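A further point concerns the way the authors explain their paired sequence and structure data. The central task, working out the structure tokens from the amino acid sequence alone, is never made concrete. I therefore recommend that a typical entry be quoted early in the introduction. An entry of this sort, consisting of the sequence and the corresponding backbone structure tokens, reads as follows:
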Amino acid sequence: MRQTFDESTDRTFGPRHVPLIRRAMAEQGLDGFLVPHEDEHQNEYLPAANDRLAWATGFTGSAGAAVILKDRAAVFVDGRYTLQVRDQVDTGVFEIRDLVEGGVPAFLETSTARGQRIGYDPRLHSPDALAKLRAAAEKAGALLTPVNDNPVDRAWGGARPAQPAAPVVPHPLAYAGEESAAKRAHLGADLAARGAEAAVLTAPASIAWLFNVRGGDVIRSPLPLAQAILSKDGSARLFLDPVKVTPDLPAWLGNQVQVETPDDLPAALAELKGAKVLVDPAQSSAWYFDTLAAAGAEVIRAEDPCALPRACKNPVEIEGSRQAHIRDGAAVARFLHWLATDGQTNPPDEIEAVSKLEGFREATGALKDLSFDTIAGAASNGAIVHYRPTTRLNKRTEAGSLLLVDSGAQYLDGTTDITRTVAIGEPSPEMRERFTLVLIGHLALAAIRFPAGTTGSALDILARAALWNRGLDYDHGTGHGVGSYLGVHEGPQRISKAPNTVALKPGMILSNEPGYYKEGAYGIRIENLQVVTPAEVIAGGERPMLGFETLTLAPIDRRLIVAEMLPPELRAQLDAYHARVLAAVGPLVESDIKGWLQEACAPL
């Protein structure tokens, strides 16, 4: 689906919609209501029908929350969205608060009063998050009250879009690499070993991975909205809207999978009375825990059993990702060639750049979708970390500026995510220095070897050290997990300053994306995807060490590199990377583009 540039929200959403929400609150005797970004499936990217936070506030970021009280309201965002939120949200209606420092709990503790009833929809909050919110409200003497009729949904009324109903189709073994029955048998045995009789699965990515199916209910991700109950014997009940069931799906799922409707789910949970049932408190909402407790089930709080095996790609998935990145690299090379030629003499605007890149990807004949809406930030817009160009905000590139392009694609054999920062005209010395600092961190993280048991948190400093030594930093994580023709953001692995207990394991795909952002001027980010490689002994060493294989293949703008700042080993590393790019991508592009690529990939 082609990227659009009309804004789905505007600053009038708050003034127009908050009074309607307050009216719906009053009808239920509520003094306030919590509006999380997450939906019933704890999704990061939402179907339009479930994007309640955007409808209530105007804010369209992928993380955030709002609290609407009778006489005041606040919206909460993290460091990625500090500029975007002020552009999208009416600050006369909403206070802007930090989502991380204090966040919603601190607001409830200081802004609610004794005896007030603050409503929440139990389908939208994880139990752990809800416990923190409840504790904060209780300190103020307020009471968190569950509601069955969400005031935002009631206020939205007939204008609310319909729920998505994309067909669910088989994902062939040639791409999946392992039969669903084998996955279910392995996970079922693991459940039995842990004393559980079943697991409740609600994450769309887990449903897609476990049953080797794909859908289209979540924007830019081939995910179906569904739920499942996996039994310890490997059988499963899959709760799926009948309109999504394609003719060949039942046979693909096999006799051990019973397809039912979402309306059957409450009764199915009630049937688990007395059983030990595993549920992930980070992925499943409080509603599941409340429903199972009411049924008399014994809930085991544990991570989604699909999360770790899904993250550790099998050999077929890893090879598929390699091929997807070669194919995508050719499309990106054509785009970068266009920027280096036509784009220098006739500087494009952001929308033209986005459309051109999407066209090159479509020309591969294999593109299923983008993996997220392309971020193309010219000059000062590049400093907005998760900026998305719109008709209103669209800016034309100009000589002496930078263009940051963060984009990705969905192919049957893999998901890509790449950021390149390109100079338009002659970059300033400061731009080149800051770019090179970012590049030093990027190369250091790509080259590191590390022992088993190492987490992404332990590696994050590698990407930041050069910046920190100059008094600089960036306010986002360094790396996120990426799925195999699934979501572009995948856990449980990540690389960030935030503590993370998940050790990096072979087959995990992560991004490597340090950056630097100068507000009001420009943004810089360099991003490749890389897969964790099995532990091997280093010559002369004593312990086997894991490492990374870089998957993304596209040149890095040489005009922005201060070669003298790179130590010899990093210079050699960059030259070797560019040689790989030329060898893999060169045969796929036209002769004029190959000539440019040879120059772009020449040794420093």
User: Anything to note?
Assistant: The chain has a mean pLDDT of 95. DSSP finds 20 helices and 27 strands in the chain. The longest strand covers residues 528-537. Residues 274 and 405 are 53 Å apart (CA to CA).
